UniProtKB/TrEMBL annotation:
It comes from the Bacteria. Its main location: membrane. It is a multi-pass membrane protein. It is found in: Cell membrane. The keyword Thylakoid does not apply. This is Cytochrome C oxidase assembly protein. It comes from Aquibium oceanicum. One of its GO terms (cellular component) is plasma membrane. The keyword Translocase does not apply.
Length: 189
């Protein structure tokens, strides 16, 4: 079912990937050595574009049908989305200390485009994934549309909480650090 498929992606991309990056922050920041050769803002931009492009391409009707028909394509879908997500979260975490505006921009752009995809799933008047339905055990009746709508609602909810939640944490941290800075307390003489 599409809902089950989305739950796997949500858990991998919005729970496991950021948790892995935060847990292994030193590992990821050290191992992604090319990040030191590329400007952090460019690295973040590439990570944002890669994640968005892969998410949209794999969730086009043809992409999802292809993945449903060929087991290795489904594995490639899951792996590439997870890897892009790890890269994205590593870029966001890496930008927090030096370029918080960049991290916020990356989160908000990705959230907006991910939520747009979820909204398409949720508000479509008919099943968008006839190829996926045909290649799976789902029957092309009303339950397929309900499944698609539920998958879209899960996407909307998960992406809002994870990306916007991360942005709120970054802003709170940034404001806290700004408040502690000596220049913040110095008023006009």
């Amino acid at each position: 079912m599409l809902t089950e498929h989305m739950l796997k992606h949500i858990l991998a991309m919005n729970v496991v990937a950021p948790a892995a990056v935060l847990a292994g922050r030193g590992f990821f920041m050290h191992r992604v050595s090319f990040m030191h050769r590329v400007s952090p803002s460019r690295f973040l931009g590439v990570a944002v574009v890669l994640q968005i492009v892969l998410m949209w391409v794999w969730h086009l009707p043809a992409g999802l049908a292809f993945a449903a028909e060929i087991p290795s394509a489904l594995l490639a879908m899951h792996f590439s989305l997870f890897a892009a997500s790890v890269l994205f979260w590593a870029a966001v975490v890496g930008a927090i200390g030096t370029r918080p505006w960049g991290a916020l921009s990356g989160l908000l752009v990705t959230a907006k485009l991910s939520c747009l995809l979820g909204a398409l799933f949720t508000f479509a008047p008919r099943p968008l994934y006839a190829g996926y339905i045909a290649s799976s055990s789902i029957q092309p009746d009303g339950s397929a549309l309900e499944d698609q709508h539920l998958a879209g609602l899960l996407m909307l909810t998960a992406y809002t909480f994870s990306y916007i939640g991360a942005a709120v944490v970054i802003v709170a941290r940034w404001l806290s650090e700004t408040e502690k800075a000596p220049a913040w307390h110095d008023g006009p003489a």
